[in-house]
Amino acid sequence: MSGALVRACVAMARGLAVSAAIAMSAMLPTHARAAAFTAIDDSGRSVRFERPAERVVTLAPGLTELVYAAGGGATLVGTTALSDYPPPARRVARIGDASRLDVERVLALRPDLVIVWQRGATSRELAQLEAAGVRLFHLEPRRLADVPRAVERLGVVLGQEAAASRAAEGLRRRLERLRVAHAMSAPVSVFYQVWQQPLMTINGQHLIDDVIRLCGGRNVFSRLAVLVPVISTEAVVAIDPQVIMTASESSNVVAWARAPDDAAFDTWRRHARLAAVRHGTMYALNGDAISRQGPRIVDGAEAVCAALDDARRLGR
Q1: Beta strands in the chain (DSSP E)
Q2: Confidence of residue 250 (pLDDT cuts 50, 70, 90)
Q3: Which domains does the chain have, with CATH numbers?
């Protein structure tokens, strides 16, 4: 065989090899071809990914909802007891609850990413997971703008950028509509009751405070130093808020309800001079929507805005 013919055959073989390689690459999932990247979590740590995560465990219900919103539901292999939304989340393996994390169960699921709510699992359990080589990613939205941003960040680490971007933009549009609608609303003083015994509320750094301000409300305990402080009944009576709100434990509250007969307001009905008691402006909110730091907080914001609009009418 002549040298020219040999060189031609070699060139053809190389061309076929390159074509085959390109074809094989095209058949691989996008994340299998992606370059390594680094993401910063809410603890300020840089978390390195060789490729998007494929087996995910979430340690709070709001985190589960964020994963689904980002288009990553199929990656979820484990979550906590109260992660019941969206409905497919109910079929995911349980690895503990708010007070206890089954570290062995988590490790048995072989996750390549555990998403952590910073005020959830104990530091001891998280240290055990890290010691076992499990990668942690902390997420805790503290402002409404952080929620769509969290969806986008999960879209990156889960390889679902397009779906996550669409979901995030939808959340932003809904929040912007509320912001515009209530930009000129009359201010209303609000006491948000987290718990009855002991009596607890929120300060100005809490996500729910951001919701109240979006709707033209003013959290009467925003200046307290602790995120979820314990307060006295006398302190609330002295401030005399125009509105009292709490998260309902009843599934009957779809969004919000004027609920003067709810047991959560028993303490306040004994103080008939309170403005919120006189006008009947005490509201129960859907607990899952207002209390979870996930995409449904936008539903919670819509409910709070509607309740405060109702309070403005009643307080005239």
Answers
A1: 37-40, 46-49, 56-58, 76-79, 93-94, 113-116, 136-138, 188-193, 217-219, 243-248, 256-258, 282-286
A2: confident
A3: 33-165 (3.40.50.1980), 184-314 (3.40.50.1980)
